[in-house]
Amino acid sequence: MDIFTDVATDVAVLQSRAARCKLDHIIGSSAALESALAGVERVAPTDSTVLLLGETGTGKELVARAIHDMSHRCDRPLVKLNCAAIPFDLLESELFGHEKGAFTGAFNQEIGRFEMANTGTLFLDEIGDIPLALQPKLLRVLQEQEFERLGSGKTHHVNVRLIAATHRNLMDMVRRKEFRSDLYYRLNVFPIELPPLRERREDISQLVWHFVEIFARRMGKRIDRLSEKTLDAFRSYSWPGNIRELQNMVERAVILSNDRELPNPLPAARLQPSQASGSNPWLMQTTDSKSVTNSNQPAGTYQSTTRDSQRVLILQALHDAEWVIGGPQGAAALLGLKRTTLITKMRKFGISRPEPQSEPSQVANGIF
């Protein structure tokens, strides 16, 4: 009996090591990341639905791949669909397929992602963008594992494990009647929240060197030095774009590198909101102005400094947003301001879009 117990223990240990190897491509060892990965290891061997939560750029697709690779479906297909990237009127066909003639332009029969993922895993990214009208049909296939293609009354049965992901707060969407509560509870079987990069700063050094190795090899460069000052700049920046933004910054730094040393690609204005655990840089500036005006120093000096800092932040945001003010990727969103508020402040600081020929001198002077 002891021999069988020892064998079972050895098998369990080997399985655990094999599972951990599947997570090796997820870089980092911080407590916040390890907590999320512990959930991944626990749920991966099951067929349960997983809901990945976290800000844009936190690596949800990478984690979905790890869950699939650690499951018993690993030798079956992993099919992916970004729900936000498909027009609403085509999303139903993408998910469930259609018959020939089901709608204008449907010249052939097409199978949907659920059929493609049969016996495997379906990863639905940005699940919060699925329109309300389509949610009951998604709920049905999750509960009953059956559906009909567009233009057909024939029921198709599938065996699919679902992993969903979103950067939205689905519970808030349920309260606003923008997301069905029954679908939310069906998706929320095993939620895993991926931490933003600002909550795992101890992983930044590993991530930087990981991306340096990738881009240096791709560009045929050799980089083996990274100054503590540059690394501190990376650690102190708030990274609103998370790992995706860090990856892009390292790529920029590799392009700019000389003498085998990685330079600091972050403009000075970006370093001002340092140590900001997700804080809005505009709010930080406002808070700073309130604190300094309570000191014994002349208020006018600090007000002038604060105005200059705010102007630099606005200019940086406008540059990063390519002078787009509104919208989810606009400068107002980057600053956490309303569009009308930003326009008012631009007028106050005398900021207007520069002529094309004036941009090089502005960059050279360090404005951006």
Describe the structure.
Residues 4-18, 272-279, 283-305 and 356-368 have low confidence and may be disordered. The chain folds into 3 domains: 2-195, P-loop containing nucleotide triphosphate hydrolases (Rossmann fold, 3-Layer(aba) Sandwich), CATH 3.40.50.300; 199-266, Orthogonal Bundle (Helicase, Ruva Protein, domain 3), CATH 1.10.8.60; 279-368, no CATH class. The protein has a 5-stranded parallel β-sheet with strand order 2-3-6-1-7. Strands 4-5 form a two-stranded antiparallel ribbon. A two-stranded parallel ribbon has the order 8-9. It is built from 17 helices and 9 strands. With 368 residues, the protein is an alpha/beta fold. It is globular. The N and C termini lie far apart (71 Å).
Give the overall form.
Answer: globular
Residues in β-strands, percent: 5-15%
**Spatial order of the strands forming the largest sheet:** 2-3-6-1-7
Give the class from helix and strand content and strand pairing.
Answer: alpha/beta
Quaternary: single chain
Please give the CATH class of the largest domain. Alpha Beta
Question: Cα distance, first to last residue?
Answer: 71 Å
The figure for the number of domains is 3
Can you identify the CATH superfamily of the largest domain?
P-loop containing nucleotide triphosphate hydrolases
Most strands sheet: 5 strands, parallel
Number of E-type strands? 9
Which architecture name of the largest domain does CATH use? 3-Layer(aba) Sandwich
Radius of gyration: 25 Å
Number of helices: 17
> What is the helix content?
40-55%
Q: What's the mean pLDDT score?
A: 82
CATH topology of the largest domain, which one?
Answer: Rossmann fold
Q: From N to C, what is the helix and strand string?
A: HHEHEHHEHEEEHHEHEHHEHHHHHH
